[in-house]
Amino acid sequence: MKSSLIILILLALMVSCQPSSFEEAESKKQLEETSKAIRTAFKNGNVDSIMLYHHPDVMKVFSFDEEPGDFAMVKKGLEDLLVNNEVHFEESEIESRLINDNTSILQTKFKLFGKVKSTGEEWSYEGRTMVVSVKYDKSPTGWATIREIVQPAQ
Fold first, then answer.
1. Which of 3, 93, 148, 152 has the most neighbouring CB atoms within 10 Å?
2. Is residue 148 part of a domain?
3. Structural domain boundaries enclosing 45
């Protein structure tokens, strides 16, 4: 009897520590809103809007031989890109998503299209990215990227 009671208490504790399906659904909705807002900001060339969804401690890397960039480097790279190019996401396919409490890991295949503003020359870039986001109350959606690794397509 005593061992059954202990097992029931442990099970109750385990269940109460798991996020509810409502919490997970709400987080998924917020993360989808974050992704949509970032894609829209890219299309509008709005670096400040993109950066609203990045944690101050963000680190990103875009290739194997590149050093990870911090918040300032990410912002500078976006400014350099978007001052000279019109950019939009043509595709964004979620391969996997894991949400655990205040952290999300998202793996996505993507394709960007761009046009050089001065020449009209079109270009594209595709690859896979793994984005780690955390709940962050200063982000409009409550989530912000804290780590990202981009793997260019071959």
1. 148
2. yes
3. 21-152
